[in-house]
Amino acid sequence: MDFKKFSSDANTFFNRALQKTEEAFKTSDKTLLDANLDNSIKQCEMRQRWASGLIQMVENVIQPNPAIRMEDMVLKGFDKKKERLTAGEVLGDSFARIGNELGSGTPHGTALVKVGQLESSLGQAERNMTQGIEDKYLSWLRTYVNETCKEAMVNLESKIALCLNCYSFFVCLLFKQKERSKLEEVRLDLDRTKTLLRRAKDDAAKKSHLEQQLNETQTLFNRQCDITRKAMDDCVSKFDEHKTICKSLLQTQLDYFQSCVEHVESTMHSL
């Protein structure tokens, strides 16, 4: 283990946490972001909220049962999938069973079997629609939220909060250092240096060292502002693709309803 690097990293983390604490108690100044960058960050955060909200609402529509949604989410985390019959398929099986018990050779029994086949077909069409929405619409939204936005928006506050919980330490290690996070860290380093320089008083050697450090951190901060602005703008522009993705959602629904109409009309004509 590189103890010098470990000690340096620990000292950096401590200084950042101390700077944040002093800012919270208004005992230290905080460098504000320029208006354009701040607006870009807000625009990206807003689109992330929109996308997350749409994911939740669409999931509620295609699977209204919250218990089943939770079970599916857990199974997905273990890379497993539980095949379930749709309500239409269950209803179709019931119609077919009763029709066969009545007698498939009787008019009533034959009609029930045909209705059962219809309901099963409608249930299968619903399954296909659900899978289509998952593949063509929800997958894009999840990628946007979990990759595009996260690369830009993972922030220092979230990581500190996770680290303060021992059970979440492993989760904290999994977070990648992304652009917003880097900007916040560089900003804390810059402001900590400013604070220490202001408190150096008459120590000429210390002030000289801190002034050099301030120039370096200011350069890093300016560079990271530019990188973060580009990341935020990319996040905002990426969301514009959602218009096209919406068409795939509507096409999937259109295919479903057209299929349902065809199945129902065909069955009605055969009865």
From TrEMBL:
Gene3D superfamilies xrefs: Arfaptin homology (AH) domain/BAR domain
Pfam families assigned: BAR (PF03114)
Transmembrane segments: none
All residue ranges annotated as the BAR domain in the record: 5-270
One cellular component term from this protein's GO annotations in UniProt: cytoplasm
Name of this protein: BAR domain-containing protein
